[in-house]
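Support request, please re-run this one:
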Amino acid sequence: MECVVSPSIRTVLTPAPTSGPPLSPRAYVTFYRDPASRLALLVTAITMCYAGGIAMFWFHAIYLDEGGPAISWVVHWLLDSSFAFVALTPALALIMPFAVWVARSVAPASNHLIPWLYAAVAGTAFALATTPGPLAHDLVVGRGTWVADQVTQAMGDPSAPLPPTADYPPLAAMAQQLGAGVPLYVALMALTVILLRTLLRPHER
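Re-run finished. Output below.
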């Protein structure tokens, strides 16, 4: 008889039979009871928010010419990415168990597909969660906000002239975020699968 285990991130990295209702509050508690799942959340949040953040910094500040405060690009990236880390880690905590369940439900007989289906589902869901990100960014850490002014005072040049920037309507800004986010975050989620397999390999049984 096969050993049936509780759902955790290990069931994606090393697929095995699972039991229990997939989307109940108890299932979420069970998922994060495994230290591997908590590690996965931390690694995933850092990867998505900081590695993803540098890509989104280039996309928004440079490619779309949205600019930013009078601070260096490194400080700008760290400011935006740290805001994303705080705001989006709770969303990731909900997305990851859901993506595990979807991947295992859609491809139960294909152990090779499950990790990559998980990455596709989780990455797409994360991209959807970030869709209002440009609006939240402009309200909290964008140019002219209290946070941006404090960071500029501490680590920038408040007297520096600010060049004009492009201004996009809210719907356009969200559409741009989603369009860039889906391929980026799916790719980064696949990267986290590889990273977690490496990190957790010594603990596999």
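Residues 38-157+165-203 form one domain. Confidence is low (pLDDT under 50) at residues 1-6.
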